[in-house]
Amino acid sequence: MAEWDADLDHIIPSSILPPLWAKLLVGFVSLVCFARSYDGDFVFDDSEAVVNNKDLRAETPLGDLWHHDFWGNQLSSNTSHKSYRPLTVLVFRMNCYLSGGFHPLSFHVVNILLHSGISILLVDVFSVLFGGLQYTSKGRRLNLAPRSSLLAALLFAVHPVHTECVAAVVGCADLLAALFFLLSFLGYCKALRETNKEGTHSTFWVLLSILLGAVAMLCKEQGITVLGLNAVFDILVIGKLNVLELVRKVLHKDRSLENTGMLRTEGLLFRMSLLALGGTGVLYVRWKIMGTGPPAFTEVDNPASFASSMLVRAINYNYYYSLNAWLLLCPWWLCFDWSMGCIPLIKSVGDWRVIALAALWFCLIGLICQALCSEDSHKRRILTLGLGLLIIPFLPASNLFFRVGFVVAERVLYLPSAGYCMLLTFGFGVLSKHTKKRYWPRAKLVAAFVLGILFINTLRCVIRSGEWRNEEQLFRSALSVCPLNAKVHYNVGKNLADKGNQTAAIRYYREAVRLNPKYVHAMNNLGNILKERNELQEAEELLSLAVQIQPDFAAAWMNLGIVQNSLKRFQAAEQSYRTAIKHRRKYPDCYYNLGRLYADLNRHVDALNAWRNATVLKPEHSLAWNNMIILLDSTGNLAQAEAVGREALELIPNDHSLMFSLANVLGKSQKYKESEALFLKAIKAHPNTASYHGNLAVLYHRWGHLDLAKKHYEISLRLDPMASGTKENYGLLRRKLEQMQKKNI
User: Fold this and answer.
1) Burial per residue of 726-738, b for 16 or more beta-carbon CB atoms within 10 angstroms, e otherwise
2) What interhelical angle do 377-391 and 226-233 show, nearest 10?
3) Is residue 267 within 8 Å of 229, Cβ to Cβ?
4) 154: pLDDT strictly greater than 90
């Protein structure tokens, strides 16, 4: 091993070789790369996975986490993505509890620290992968390739492709899975270190390694692949299997396979059996929990997997692999989402992009040949382990075993990038050794090149971390990378709409629909904006098209009903609302809008029933409660209106609009004191609402407190001079006061 490390003398000076300092350096560099994201917002998928995830609420039983997916939906639901990560959700929930709520800073800090810890842990992992499990006769550990492991860990710590995992809160799943993946591998190494000459080993550490692999899988699915890496490491390092020699003997029908090294360790077969049984058992339990059904993805999620031709699917899958490889080699063009036309399908072998997958397989075959055919056993082992660490964790995202819900995703490269860094480090070592023997200055150029990569990648991490700090920067950064991605334009438009810039939002929504004419969510949002701008005809056309493309799109059905209601097409509106409820039975907002339709048609009983359904499904639905109070008040059912108002305030005690509505009812029932108290509470919550002061003035007017009535009439008119009802009441009060003054005279 000393000879290997000498190859890197010009890249990493020996003065920083002590393990503690090496780990401190790696940890510090990893913090520098991603520290800029510590105070970022919740962005993109963070909203659904964290902010809107009911499993993170204190009132949700902890047991529900084991029956829900990553997004808080029932695993048995047809709409579930089947992403079963209960331990990650549990970490999120603990974070909320300890930080006192949904504060993004605490989530981001956890991610940054996790990445730093993983980078430090990789120093030990790379030491084993480069140097093997070597001990002196007294059982003391030898110095295992410290320069190689340090350089590989540094390359991993500063790789920009990790930005999504570190800067996005949902990336915590990948980080936790990677952490337990590495702990499982080191645990397995611990079992192998205790293997003696008779081949016995520590079964406890093997079982613990399998358990840690299961924990990694409960953080994110690809964590279970560590068992495959453990098996490869055991066979190559402990079993000392020479694949090339084995193939030669098989081809020559040589039955003397004892010299291949495969059978040298008597415990190998037992350990392989434990790994196989453990992995199979964990996957079976996972399959049963998932509901034994695969997740349902659409063509826009992964268009290649829906291609009818097997050749087209194979070409595109391999092209996706080449794009992933390119992201590892040149992580400059990064995007939060690579779907929706970002990567057009290759439909024939005549497409020039086929060159990319040809180049990928040329490089892979070259590496595989070197890993199998090299006479240098050390080189064979490092290349094989590097390829194993690169490929095995990537297999769940490869579409080979099941369809995945994405085209390219930077987050799935977090663990495979460790294998890439190992191979890159090996390449630098070979290059340094080659140039050192011939041209001394060239060896220094290699060192400068390596340092340049570390610096450029660090700079890129800092820049990219800044882009992940808020959604506006994140979405706009993707426009130059994936201008054909309809989802990018959709998200930019949504961000603009949330900020009130409807004109610009319309432009981006239209572009999203142009790029993907079946993008129903863009149609729905664009239809909503057009509805608010009273462009009802186009809004109806868009929403009708959306529900035609996706008949079970409940939100679009509801919005179509709202537009039809505005166009006075009441029967069609009712049918649209009913269809929305059919596809989403627990839809309080739709019941609320259905109630408004019935109220417009003077179907008061139906309206009250619809609003009652809304409040049953969503007890904090203030608008539904208010409309019930107002309708009962306007129809003279004061006692019932009062009962509903009190019920609503018990559920939503700080809602000023409910206080106002109930105060009006109490005033009409001549419960002046209680009505006054509620009006004053509402005014304290919203002191600049003209109607609150105006109606309080009316109460005082009826009550006979004319001076107070005059005061609040004047405040109301100052806030809203155009309020005709207040003007009229104020005029009546002034005439009454003048008459009283004349009588006194």
Assistant:
1) bbebbeebeeeee
2) 170
3) no
4) yes
| Whether 335 contacts 370, CB under 8 Å | no
Residue (of 63, 67, 86) closest to 75 by Cα position: 67
Alpha-carbon gap, residue 453 to 155, rounded angstroms? 8
**Are 390 and 97 contacting, i.e. CB atoms less than 8 angstroms apart?**
no
Strand partners of residue 74: 68
Amino acid identity, position 409: A
What integer pLDDT is reported at residue 420 of this predicted model? Answer: 95
Query: Can you give the residue ranges of every domain in the chain?
Result: 170-293, 300-426, 586-686, 693-745
Least confident of 41-45, 142-146, 187-191, 729-733: 142-146
The pLDDT assigned to 195 comes to 57
pLDDT at 202 over 80: no
Strand-pairing partners, residue 135, are 141
The dihedrals phi and psi of 28, each to the nearest 5 degrees, come to -65, -45
- Residue 298 CA, chain-centre distance (Å), reads 18
Q: Which residue has the tokens 């190559």?
A: 236
In sequence order, the β-bridge partners of residue 141 are 135
Which one-letter DSSP state was computed for residue 51? Answer: I
Q: Residues with Cβ < 8 Å from 362, sequence gap 6 or more?
A: none
Distance CA 639, CA 665 (A): 9
pLDDT of residue 364: 92
In this structure, are residues 417 and 161 in contact, taking their beta carbons and an 8 Å threshold?
A: yes
Q: Where are the alpha helices (DSSP H) in 220-257?
A: 226-233, 243-251
CA distance 51 to 71: 10
**98 phi/psi in degrees, rounded to 5:** -75, -35
Q: Among residues 193, 194, 186, which one has the least CA distance to residue 213?
A: 186
Q: Quick count: other Cβ atoms within 10 Å of Cβ 302?
A: 19
> How many other CB atoms are there within 10 angstroms of residue 374's CB atom?
16
CA distances from 557 to 52, 161, 560, 719 (A): 22, 40, 5, 39
Q: How many CB atoms lie within 10 A of CB 259?
A: 13
pLDDT of residue 436: 52
Per-residue pLDDT tens for 621-648? 999 999 999 999 999 999 999 999 999 9
Q: DSSP string spanning 374-385?
A: -S-HHHHHHHHH
Angle 125-130-132 (CA atoms, 0-180°, nearest 5)? Answer: 80
For the chain, the residue count is 745
Residue-wise pLDDT for 506-552, tens only, equals 999 999 999 999 999 999 999 999 999 999 999 999 999 999 999 99
Q: What is the pLDDT of residues 209-264, one digit of tens each?
A: 999 999 999 999 999 999 999 999 888 877 777 776 766 776 665 555 455 444 45
- Spell out the residues 6+ positions from residue 65 whose beta carbon is closer than 8 angstroms to its own: 55, 86, 89, 90, 93
Q: pLDDT > 70: what percent of the chain? A: 89
CATH number belonging to domain 586-686: 1.25.40.10
CA 735 to chain centre: 65
Cα(540)–Cα(559) distance, rounded to whole angstroms?
Answer: 9
Q: Is 400 helix (H, G, I), strand (E, B) or coil?
A: coil
Q: How confident is the model at residue 139 (pLDDT cuts 50, 70, 90)?
A: very low
β partners of residue 68? 74
CA-angle at 548, arms to 545 and 552, nearest 5°: 125
